[in-house]
Amino acid sequence: MYTTSSAQNTSTSFEWSKYPRALHTMDSLIQQSKQYGLRANDYVFNKTNDASIHKAVVHFFTDLAYGNALPSIGYFGVQFKLNKDTVEKMVIQAASDNTLPSLVTWYNTRSSEVVLLLKEIKKLQDSTPKPNRSIQIVTKAINDYRWLYAIQKNNKIILVNLPSTKLRVWDNGKQVLHMNLIVGKPATPSGTLTSVVNQVVINPYWNVPRSIMVREMLPSIKNDIAYLDRNHLEVRDLNYKKINPFKVNWYDIDTVHFPFYIRQSTGCDNSLGIIKLDFDNPYGIYLHDTPQKELFALNNRFFSHGCMRMEKPIEMAKYLLKNNKAILDSIDFENCYKNPKPINIQMIEKVNVIVWYHLIDFDDRSRIIYYRNIYNKPLN
Which of 42, 163, 62, 170 minimizes the C-alpha distance to 107? Predict the structure, then answer.
């Protein structure tokens, strides 16, 4: 394994003219960029200019280490730190030792996902000389999983892949939990993001989004006022004071004039179940439990308005709260109570959330699985 302990002090350049064998090797490696999921044209250099050579070579290895672009994520609430200076030190060491091919191999074999994806792209490239949709999908995945490897080895990460409706939890490079999800339907897709879990809510209320109140609930209320009671819903005014729904003339209420909030009481029948994970994002979405457990048995799990429902919410809560044993021991996850009081538990340690959109994922036997572009997103 490569380390940086014996590397020279990094500089903004390197005298490549003194290492013609390394320069020749580097030129050959760059020409092989396509099989690494990279673009050779990104690393063009002037062979008579050491600074130009060095810049291109460091760029090449930085892309091998971290991917050639950030993943296509709509909201970056977390900017993960990448130690790119380390790459330059290792390049200088490898050039001096004439071991640049070994450094390429090391970067390409650190991540088990990248190893599988590189085999997949070679198979695709061998079968067709022209770029195609599958090659495009795999190329993007190679680079995104390089980025993921670089950050997951030193972080705790909840990783959601929307097309596969899967969730995995990584704890400093080790997968510790995985489960199925229910995510946004195509009409109300879940958003991609990076964020940090700020609290776990046990027995949450569901504050119904306005779009659901006016488009879905209002017609049901007008048809049958008992709809509110059957679904454990309470109506509140704009000052959030509880009001009697029987005193409202619902036929005077419409989608524009709707001066109310609707909240669902806590408990097992709550649409959020008994557990919710809060994290900042512009979409107003979160990860939560659900009373509709039967939906996890389906292959097509795109049913929500954007939030993401967890198959194993209790396991998730126990993982997140494992360092808060006093709180954890005081919670009864096994029994269902009527209208229990919500418990908001602030996180002690940092656990990141990454929600991304990949048409490739991996099954439990580390096989590549292709998924449908359910949200019809561009592939770049």
Answer: 62
- How many Cβ atoms are within 10 Å of 56's Cβ, its own excluded? 17
The upper half-sphere exposure of residue 194, i.e. CA atoms within 13 Å in the direction of its Cβ, equals 17
Catalytically active residues, by annotation: 288, 307
The pLDDT mean for the chain works out to 93
Confidence tier at 339 by pLDDT (50, 70, 90):
confident
Q: Are 191 and 272 in contact (CB under 8 A)?
A: no
∠ CA 42-43-49 to the nearest 5 degrees? 140
Q: Is the dihedral of CA 115, 119, 124, 128 positive or negative?
A: positive
Q: Which pLDDT belongs to residue 105?
A: 98
- Residue ranges and CATH numbers for the domains of the chain are 16-144 (no CATH), 158-205+267-370 (2.40.440.10), 213-264 (no CATH)
- In 203-342, at which residue ranges do the beta strands (DSSP E only) sit? 206-207, 233-236, 242-243, 261-264, 275-279, 287-288, 302-304, 308-310
Q: Which residue type sits at 266? A: T
Distance CA 248, CA 102 (A): 74
- Average the pLDDT over 328-355 and give the result: 90
Q: Helices marked H in the chain — which ranges?
A: 20-31, 50-66, 84-97, 100-109, 112-127, 133-152, 210-212, 218-223, 226-230, 313-320, 325-329
The C-alpha atoms of residue 262 and residue 274 are separated, in whole angstroms, by 18
Is a pLDDT exceeding 90 seen at residue 77?
yes
Taking the CB of residue 77, how many other CB atoms lie within 10 A of it?
15
Q: For residue 96, is pLDDT > 50?
A: yes
Q: What is the pLDDT of residue 311?
A: 98
Q: Tell me: the pLDDT tens digits for 107-131? A: 999 999 999 999 999 999 999 877 7
Structure tokens at 162: 């929307």
Q: How many CB atoms lie within 10 A of CB 186?
A: 9
Task: For residue 20, give the nearest of 88, 91, 103, 95 by alpha carbon.
Answer: 95
| Residue with tokens 């990584």, as numbered in its chain | 170
Name the residue type at position 58: V
Residue type, 219: P
pTM, 2 dp: 0.92
